[in-house]
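Protein modeling request. Please complete all fields; requests missing the sequence field cannot be processed.
Requester role: graduate student
Desired output: 3D structure, token encoding
Chains: 1
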Amino acid sequence: MKSEERSLSYSRPSNKFYPPHIDQSQSLLRINLLTTRLPNKKHNKKAIVIEAQAGQGKTTLVSQFLDYNDNSSIWYQIGPEDTDPVLLLSSLLTNLSDNLSGFSSPQLTTILNEGSVGPLDLTRCANILLKDLDLHLSDDIYFVFDDLHRMEYDALTNSLLEHIIDTSPPKVHFILSADSHWN
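Delivered output (183 residues):
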């Protein structure tokens, strides 16, 4: 991580940006779901929503989908702290900077480090991040938001997430995983 982005990495859980370890030898490959219900590598779907009861294997299915289609991905483990839209935005930036080789967003980093992001600035900040991401990407990538149900309802955060999904570059796709009681 670049030194100017270092100050963005405050009190985040250590597993926030990593998929859970899944022992494939202990998992049933869901080939029918992978080949008939989920899109193959060549598609134009913006978002895939996987919703089921707790313990039904949503995270395992997401992992299998990404592996089966050899998709590049950025994992984001949702937690209650993500109700804060500025924290969500800075966490996305940190995740991309840490896990996408060569990616940076200097203008957004400066704005976030100044600490003066208000509700009316969120869309502009998201647009800066998405523009920098679009300029950086040469291939498609999936953003996995795992355990979306853990994010408590907040109008600003939901609006920010919707904006990011709706206005993201064509090479960016999303997988949203949540327990079935979520809505």
